[in-house]
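User: Some background: our group keeps a shared notebook of sequences we're curious about, and every so often someone picks one and asks for a predicted structure to add to the entry. Today it's my turn. The entry only has the sequence so far, pasted here. Could you supply the structure so I can complete it?
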Amino acid sequence: MQVQLDALTTERLQASLAGQPGAFKLFYDTEDCGCNGVLVVQIVDGPNATDIVYKQAPFSFIVDRQQESLFDQVMRIQAEENYPSYKVTSDSTLYGSNVRIRDKRQQAVQ
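Assistant: Of course. Here's the predicted structure to add to the notebook entry:
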C-alpha cells in the first residue's frame, strides 16, 4: 500500500508525533459503534505481530493483516485546512472526512 500526503498533512502528522517516535496505524474501530467500524488513525509505538508495516517517508504506516483488504493500494490522507481532522480517500472510496488522530503510544497513555 502507498499513502500519499500533501505538504500540510505532512506538517500536521509531524506535529502530532511531538518529536517522539511512532507510526501511524490505519484502523477500523468497531468497539461501541454499532456499525461496521469507524476509520481512525492511531499513533502507535510500533507494529503488533499481526500488522503489516508500509514505509512511506517520512512516516511509517501500519495496517492489521485482517483489515488490509478494506483499504486500496493507493490511499490519500489530507489534512483539513481549517479544522484538526483529516480526509482519507482513494481513487474509488471516501473512507472518512472527519478522521482524527488518536495517540495510543505508551508515553501518551501514562
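Suggested note for the entry: The chain has one domain: 2-109. The helical segments are 7-17, 106-109.
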